[in-house]
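Re: [ENG-882] Designed sequences occasionally contain unexpected residues at chain ends

Forwarding the minimal case from QA. Structure tokens:
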């Protein structure tokens, strides 16, 4: 769906520069994946005590406060200025749904398994980018994405107990997340990373606040450090992820989220005693290898010819 621009002709805050900087974008994506894994583990822990909507509200609310403290002193309220409010709302509604589905999946299955199923998102992101953004997705990228998806299939072990109800929630998140990624890439032509992040956190805070009257449990002080840490890491992850999408095509950087599976396995084992299966390890080697090959391919493709 195309959202018409408004008539606001005032200058935007921090005008975005659409320069392709793939190695830097890959660094941001790897860092975002690592820190998102901590946030996922923290959210799964908190969801054992608190309702899903409340956990997600506290996460984005803390993120909003911290990001505002970082963005507002340098740009003021101009950071909210946009010509595409409708696109921001649609993006946030999609993320509201996808993040809710993913946390529900975390409560129903091991962290690493749910994370692995979510890794089908790059395939949907690349497809959406090719269809809606007319991005060029060459044979090498398609091959890497398909091989990476094969690794996900090995991890999830179709036919075993992985494809339970929790897996369906995780897959639903993957489809939505893939389309969100493509949508954000399209919005970077007019929106800065700061504007994208502040709108996302503001709208998600509002949406999750609407769930509180239905289910709410008063937090205890002993959980405050984990709640705050969850918000801090989520804020950093959201901004770094947005910067990565801002600097490179989605099909080039999104596969590097595969690396966060390693961290998910570590958190799962340390906190819940989830022992990685052979399929999980073999599939992880495939998806990580796919990401490393893509890094080599993109660096070689961008290297100037002599």
């Amino acid at each position: 769906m195309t959202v018409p621009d408004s008539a606001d002709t005032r200058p935007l805050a921090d005008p975005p520069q659409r320069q392709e900087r793939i190695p830097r974008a890959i660094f941001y994506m790897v860092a975002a994946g690592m820190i998102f894994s901590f946030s996922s583990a923290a959210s799964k822990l908190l969801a054992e005590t608190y309702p899903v909507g409340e956990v997600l509200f506290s996460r984005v609310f803390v993120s909003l406060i911290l990001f505002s403290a970082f963005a507002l002193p340098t740009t003021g309220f101009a950071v909210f200025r946009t010509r595409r409010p409708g696109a921001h709302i649609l993006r946030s509604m999609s993320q509201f749904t996808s993040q809710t589905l993913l946390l529900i999946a975390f409560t129903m299955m091991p962290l690493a398994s749910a994370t692995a199923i979510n890794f089908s998102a790059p395939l949907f992101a690349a497809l959406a980018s090719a269809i809606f953004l007319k991005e060029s997705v060459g044979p090498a990228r398609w091959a890497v994405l398909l091989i990476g998806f094969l690794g996900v299939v090995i991890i999830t072990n179709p036919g075993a107990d992985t494809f339970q109800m929790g897996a369906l929630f995780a897959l639903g998140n993957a489809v939505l997340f893939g389309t969100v990624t493509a949508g954000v890439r399209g919005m970077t032509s007019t929106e800065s990373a700061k504007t994208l992040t502040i709108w996302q956190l503001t709208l998600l805070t509002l949406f999750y606040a609407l769930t509180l009257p239905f289910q709410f449990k008063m937090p205890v002080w002993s959980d405050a450090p984990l709640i705050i840490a969850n918000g801090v890491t989520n804020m950093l992850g959201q901004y770094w992820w947005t910067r990565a999408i801002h600097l490179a095509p989605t099909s080039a950087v999104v596969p590097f989220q595969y690396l966060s599976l390693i961290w998910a396995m570590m958190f799962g084992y340390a906190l819940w005693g989830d022992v990685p299966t052979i399929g999980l390890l073999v599939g992880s080697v495939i998806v990580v290898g796919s990401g490393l090959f893509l890094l080599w391919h993109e660096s070689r493709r961008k290297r100037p010819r002599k």
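QA comment: On inspection the terminal residues look reasonable. Residues 22-302 form one domain. Proposing we downgrade this to a documentation issue.
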